[in-house]
TrEMBL record:
Residues 349-358 have a biased composition (Basic and acidic residues). The chain crosses the membrane at residues 236-260, 266-288, 297-317. It comes from the Bacteria. This is Uncharacterized protein. Residues 349-374 are annotated as: Disordered.
């Protein structure tokens, strides 16, 4: 059975890969810009948040890197697929379908190795509290979680938008559809094509899963921090009524400068006229510390290191290096794009004469004629093989000048041909499985 060569199928599959690459890039652009420019220090630098910050930063960079690498890989594999179709057409014109296709070229990657990644979520946003008129309060309370609620909200929304993007959600399905185009193909490279598309499909699944997963810890951190601050305000206000003093203290989002004084005596009267004594300051500090201690923010950031906890959040993000998928996608992004020369020219090599010279096999008897009737061994290499019916010899040709279409060659027997070489001749309908001409 000969090859079923449909150049249009390769070009269609390649174009679909490259369209998806563009779609993913359009989805990644806004997310990347937001994480680089609008989320600096969003988690603060309170010691209780150290593990959360480290974990988030690692995942954010890994997910963005995978998205960019997947886009590059889809773009490049689109080039490779189109080159496959082009090469088969030119190497097997007698049995190829359709008119001569346009010669593909290697696309420039969408992202380079030096692309900007998300900035760290760590940063000093102050003590996390504005003591207002309650002088000495900060000294007694100490630092509390000091994330930036507005920035956490911005990051959460950016990730959610990316995760919900139809092109991110549907990427794996689209790649699966491309892979289905090759079902039943007799292309000798079909195993490699299936493997590469399967790697791209798996990477797309991991990307979608990871993007959904990172939204949860951001939402939890934002909501818990916001609730803690609201609770502090409520508890202090209630205590102020009981104490009988109007304490002008405001719990604000991080970024508002605090009056870091160390007052230990009575200070000016509050809005209600009562003096703020050391006892009032101490009582207020105790209230705030108690609220922080029991607040959900402590659970949220602490659960990061407790594997399997319901509130851990990050446990929903898959291992992006699973089964070597990330490495496979990186390799695809770096694949070379080989296109066969339209004109093949035979040029004898001084290494191969008319007879065997040591380990050097004889040159082809009819070099140019044999080259003209040769077939490509595989579409990702320039190497070719031919059968000369006049002499009964098999000739193997290698490109002398890469990309120039000039070849030299040597003779081999059927048994000396590699399995790939034999398969190429059999699939092209030149010989049978025993090397006998058809």
């Amino acid at each position: 059975m000969g090859w079923t060569i449909d150049t249009g199928m390769y070009y269609d599959a390649g174009n679909k890969c490259q369209l998806l690459a563009t779609d993913l890039s359009l989805a990644l652009g806004p997310l990347s810009a937001t994480l680089q420019h609008e989320c600096t220090a969003m988690a603060g630098n309170h010691e209780s948040c150290d593990q959360w910050i480290t974990t988030y930063d690692t995942h954010a960079r890994d997910i963005v890197t995978l998205a960019a690498t997947l886009a590059n890989a889809l773009l490049r594999y689109g080039d490779v697929l189109k080159a496959n179709g082009y090469n088969w057409w030119h190497s097997n014109r007698a049995i190829a379908n359709g008119s001569e296709p346009a010669k593909p070229t290697a696309s420039e990657p969408l992202y380079d190795s030096g692309m900007a990644l998300p900035v760290t979520s760590r940063g000093d946003n102050g003590p996390g509290l504005d003591e207002g008129a309650v002088v000495g309060l900060l000294e007694r309370v100490g630092r509390i979680p000091n994330g930036d609620i507005a920035k956490l909200s911005t990051a959460r929304d950016a990730w959610r938008t990316f995760a919900d993007n139809a092109n991110v959600v549907g990427a794996a399905t689209r790649i699966s559809g491309i892979k289905a185009k090759f079902d039943g193909s007799t292309d000798p490279n079909i195993i490699a094509i299936d493997e590469h598309l399967a790697s791209l499909e798996q990477a797309a699944k991991l990307l979608a899963e990871a993007a959904r997963g990172i939204v949860t810890p951001l939402s939890e951190h934002h909501d818990a921090l916001n609730t803690m601050r609201e609770d502090i305000g409520k508890q202090v206000a209630a205590a102020a009524v009981e104490i009988g003093a109007a304490i002008a203290m405001t719990v604000v989002i991080v970024g508002v400068a605090a009056l870091l004084t160390a007052g230990t005596g009575a200070v000016a009267a509050g809005a209600g006229g009562a003096a703020l004594t050391i006892e009032i300051v101490e009582s207020t500090a105790v209230i705030i510390k108690n609220v922080v201690t029991v607040s959900r923010i402590v659970t949220v950031v602490g659960a990061v290191v407790v594997v399997g906890t319901a509130s851990g959040g990050f446990t929903a993000i898959p291992d992006l290096a699973r089964a070597g998928v990330a490495a496979a996608v990186t390799a695809i992004a770096g694949m070379a794009v080989y296109t066969a020369s339209e004109e093949l020219t035979y040029e004898a090599s001084p290494k191969h004469g008319t007879e065997q010279r040591g380990d050097a096999a004889p040159a082809p008897t009819h070099g140019q004629e044999s080259l003209d009737n040769s077939v490509l061994i595989k579409s990702t290499s320039a190497r070719r093989v031919a059968y000369d019916p006049e002499t009964g010899e098999f000739d193997v040709f290698d490109e002398t000048y890469p990309g120039k279409g000039t070849y030299h060659g040597h003779q081999r027997s059927w048994d000396q041909l590699t399995q790939e070489m034999q398969n190429a001749l059999v699939k092209a309908g030149v010989v049978n499985r025993r090397g006998k001409p058809l």
